[in-house]
Amino acid sequence: MRILLLVHAFNSLAQRLFVELAERGHDLTIEFDVNDAVTREAVAAVRPDLVLAPFLKRAIPEDVWRRVPCLIVHPGPPGDRGPSSLDWAVLEGAERWGVTVLQADGEFDAGPVWASQTFPMRDAAKAGLYRREVTEAAVTAVMQALERLTGGGAPMPVDPAAVRSRPVLPWSSRAIDWAADDTATVLRKIRSADGVPGVRDRVAGLHVNLFDAHPESRLTGPPGALLAQHHGAVCRATVDGAVWIGHMKRRSADPAAPTLKLPAAMVLGDAAVGLPEVDGDHRDVWYEESAGVGYLHFPFYNGAMGAGQCARLLAALGTALRRAPRVLVLMGGPDFWSNGIHLNLIEAADSPADESWRTINAINDVARAVLTAGDTLTVSALAGNAGAGGVFLALAADRVWARRGAVLNPHYRGMGNLYGSEYWTYVLPRRVGAEHARAVTEARLPMGAPEAVRRGLVDEAFGTTVEDFRAGVRARAEALAADPVLPELLAEKRRRRAADEAEKPLERYREEELERMHLNFYGFDPSYHVARYNFVFKIPKSRTPLYLARHRRAD
Ligand code: COA
Known about the structure:
By secondary structure, this protein is of the alpha/beta class. It contains 19 helices and 24 strands. A six-stranded mixed β-sheet has the order 2-1-3-4-6-7, sandwiched between helices. Strands 9, 10, 11, 12, 13 and 14 form a six-stranded antiparallel β-sheet that branches. A six-stranded mixed β-sheet has the order 15-16-17-19-21-24, with helices on both faces. Bound molecules: coenzyme A (COA). Residues 11-12, 195-196, 261, 302-304, 339-344, 385, 387-389, 409, 412, 414-415, 418 line the site of coenzyme A.
């Protein structure tokens, strides 16, 4: 089918559907929903069999949905309507939730239903549910809808008894009453608003929005009191325990002075200075070992890695490698493996150029430690997505495994023509060959795990859910650790590394990449700084980039 993806932004769900539909041979192009005229123009140019809207914030113009079937992906079960579906479901503790593919008509979310899927809810942030359960359900439902559409089927009207229209979730419904709310309630409120918009609160006299909440079982104090800090997160007492809050965003009264989501202690500034550093239940780097296999977890919020996080990861990696497990699996996190350098921290720094330099060097140190681990077979296990430098960091390992639904963005250029580092000029050609390396980085498109396997970036893709994938990782890693040929594999790996080093030292790759990065950070062309600003402050795109809008390209 010729399909036009009409999106508010090319977000993770839209990217996943894009790669799944492309995998099935559909002819795809993308248009951002900038205004009705642009949508009409795109529909006239593409003449699609179908408009698919996985992430839209406005209604599709009537003359468009009357002419072409327009399918909307709604993150709620049939009958659910409104813009805060998932927020309400998390806040109210729904046990099951769903995704509906409906046909656009005159009323928002009210058209007849082509397909729907349900799933059990998990205690997790809204964004995590969206990236995992909602996305998997949406892929299944969209494929079912397409099958019915091509098979000559018709959509089913919604049972009027099932209709439940809900407004935008008001701020007041998730305001935290620290003197009365227990830990479970605080977690539900914050998670219902995480990644956006966060829960409005006042902490130490500052107006902030809260994100990234986790329970703490041991620390206690007067309800509402700040108790401790740990690597940028702060711990706050509830009536029956405490919660860690990893990230906050200051609310600015001045729209001309936008603020950033940052580690909570950094946002609190002086108010966090006296808090004791305590190692509680919430960690963002940890190591475990079983059956000769080490697992290093680093579920950094949004997959973003600042210089400090890289340093802590490097230290943990060093400790793990000194224990010399036969196999070491780099687990990343369940939602993201890594999205490369932490652009918000860079933006917030006094000198973003200096902070970019510091961070890229810190992430490079991690990549080098993986590349030079001679006595352990290393595996990157991508349960979640990876972007930019995060992909190339993964390729530093000897094996790369990915969950079947993981989406990779193996390119830097979207961030203002950033050249990139993380030894990508070594690890990418070593896997895919020099010629294909260029094609991969220039394409600027998301890549599904099956395509990544075909292109050689990933060795194997398996598992639908994160749990399936992790079970598969464990089984494969244990089999590798027990394999009598492992010593031979390691010897071969050391030989190859030594030969590669003799041909061109790792340090030279790094220097050459950093020379280009220095120009990106400190040179005359400000593109990277502009692109980063637009990315972190979420400045909407005023037109669809040509690498996505195939219908607008002359070629
Ligand atoms: N630094 C800081 N924050 C980042 C980040 C990074 N490198 N990558 C992603 N994020 C944040 C986003 O700002 C967003 O924040 P929110 O919680 O405030 O909404 C969140 O992670 C999710 O990202 P989003 O873009 O909505 O996710 P996606 O799955 O739709 O898209 C990417 C994934 C990787 C394509 C996109 O996030 C991206 O381009 N990231 C930048 C990658 C990059 O250029 N890194 C630097 C070079 S190494």
